[in-house]
């Protein structure tokens, strides 16, 4: 690979744009990033905002790239990969997929050749630079290519490698779908606070700041979340009463069941879009 790989984003939606802007903010050279899409006006806007080269010509961008990031929706992936196959040289290029439920084997089948492939499962907080992504590499991926994939995803948050491709389904259930779990908790807490007499705005501000503070404490502390929970729970106090109510309702078991359901659906999608 080139010393500073040229990265082509095929599909310039919100996630791709977040990654591009994160990489540029981290100092990645503007002339080493390009992006394609189907809407010229949106591409022109992206080019104006970032200075990168944009095009509607997928083949041209792929031919000039060291890394090809596939950022289209899962249902569009088969047709896209087949269309760019003539421009892909697996001996020189890395394929990075950020589409949920698309197996590396399927991408190879659509390309018509074995290829170094990295699968990524990012999440929506990537849009504000606080993402959490799981990554899996096929055995064809070199150490340099793996480092490039890390650089791409670390531009918008945490990037963690997993050993097996099936672990991407678990990542989907934890961090991929995870933001919605917290949003649901916030939504319920805001409603509960309003029932206790607080205004909607006051409740929402308190709930969001509390979630942010708790997350930062957990991130910065050398204690586990369980230890932090115990530390803030005084015997026979208000917090203990609330936690007892959660436990009586089977909160922990329900969380586990919900994550298992997300995991199962991720496995189903992988089979649905399988080549």
Which whole number gives the mean pLDDT?
96
Task: Quickly give the structural class.
Answer: alpha/beta
Regarding quaternary structure, what we see is single chain
Q: What is the CATH superfamily of the largest domain?
A: NAD(P)-binding Rossmann-like Domain
CATH topology of the largest domain: Rossmann fold
Question: What composes the largest sheet?
Answer: 8 strands, mixed
Number of helices: 12
Q: Strand share of the residues?
A: 5-15%
| Integer tally of domains | 2
- Form type: elongated
Question: How do the strands of the widest beta sheet line up side by side?
Answer: 3-2-1-4-5-6-7-8
Query: How far apart are the termini?
Result: 28 Å
Order of helices and strands: EHEHEHEHEHEEHEHHHHHH
Cα Rg: 21 Å
CATH class of the largest domain: Alpha Beta
Question: What's the architecture of the largest domain in CATH terms?
Answer: 3-Layer(aba) Sandwich
> Using DSSP, what is the number of strands?
8
Share of helical residues: 40-55%
- The stretches of 5 or more residues where confidence is low (pLDDT under 50) are none
Topology of this protein?
Layout: E1 7-10, H1 14-25, E2 33-36, H2 40-50, E3 53-55, H3 58-63, E4 67-70, H4 74-84, E5 94-97, H5 104-111, E6 117-121, E7 131-137, H6 143-154, E8 157-161, H7 167-176, H8 178-195, H9 200-220, H10 225-232, H11 238-248, H12 251-272
Parallel strand pairs: 1-2, 1-4, 2-3, 4-5, 5-6, 7-8
Antiparallel strand pairs: 6-7
Helix pairs in contact: 1-6, 4-5, 7-12, 8-9
Can you give a write-up of this model?
The protein is of the alpha/beta class and 275 residues long. Helices cover 55% and strands 13% of the residues. It is built from twelve helices and eight strands. Strands 3-2-1-4-5-6-7-8 form an eight-stranded mixed β-sheet, with helices on both faces. Strand 2, helix 2 and strand 3 form a beta-alpha-beta unit. The longest helix is centred in the last third of the chain and has 22 residues. It is elongated and about 70 Å long. The protein starts with 6 loop residues before the first strand and ends with a helix. 32% of the residues are buried.
